[in-house]
Amino acid sequence: MNVMERQKFVVGLLVQQNRATVAELAQATGASEMTIRRDLEVLESRGALRRVRGGAVSSLPGGVEPPYAVRAMSGAQAKERLARAVVDLLTEGETVALDTGTTAVAVAKAMAGRQFTVAPLSLHAAFALSGHSGIQLVMPGGQVRPEELSFYGHAPVQTFKDLCFDTFVLGCCGIDPVQGATAYNLDDVQVKRAAVAAAQRVVLVATADKIGRTALGRICSMEEIALVVTDAPADSPAVEALRELGVEVVHPANG
Q1: Which helix (H) or strand (E) covers residue 220, if one does?
Q2: Which of 66, 160, 175, 205 suits 196 as a labelling partner, its CA being 20 to 30 A distant?
Q3: CA-to-CA separations, 21 to 28, 52, 66, 93, 153, in angstroms, rounded
Q4: What is the rounded average pLDDT of the residues 35-39?
Q5: Which domains does the chain have, with CATH numbers?
């Protein structure tokens, strides 16, 4: 692993299991313990973790969304596979509302070379889409959250009341058979709800760690979601529970 790959691995592991020792990280990455300690020092300075004796722990309290920069470092390859699977579900020429978040940015990048009309809910996704001749951008506008660069407030909600979309590609912080799709930030929830109402179908894309989780704000019920694209194991209880509700679950191809 190079430096970036190694640091992404460390952040991703701590997101999953909260704590790891220097020895465990060295063995998993093939790096020396001294190198791992330097990585931990750098990552701590970015707010991605907290160093403790012999290792590191996640710096994030429960019920709090990790910062965008931390999420962007975690699971990049998995998000790229999910993104390709999502774009394969879209028809050329569709009108698409595209959610906020790092997985949505991966979807934006996967749209390159295709023809869509896209309303991105964040500037991160808009930047990824800009410059591609086949993409027509529709900007929802509104106030912008720092770092996340997502639109919020009256303007984007009103935009989605005035427009109709073929598909809303929805990201979330948690998806649960009972609670549906949820997110931490309540301003984001209001915009996501408006996008759900504006779309003929909702395609939810979620990494495995989101399945079976709930966050503070409820976006929509499972009945409002046509498809779930996830890399969670097909035989996991949470995925089976979604299927029992009649939700179609799509898994990305490997590679």
Answers
A1: strand 217-220
A2: 66
A3: 11, 9, 21, 49, 43
A4: 94
A5: 3-65 (1.10.10.10), 75-250 (3.40.50.1360)
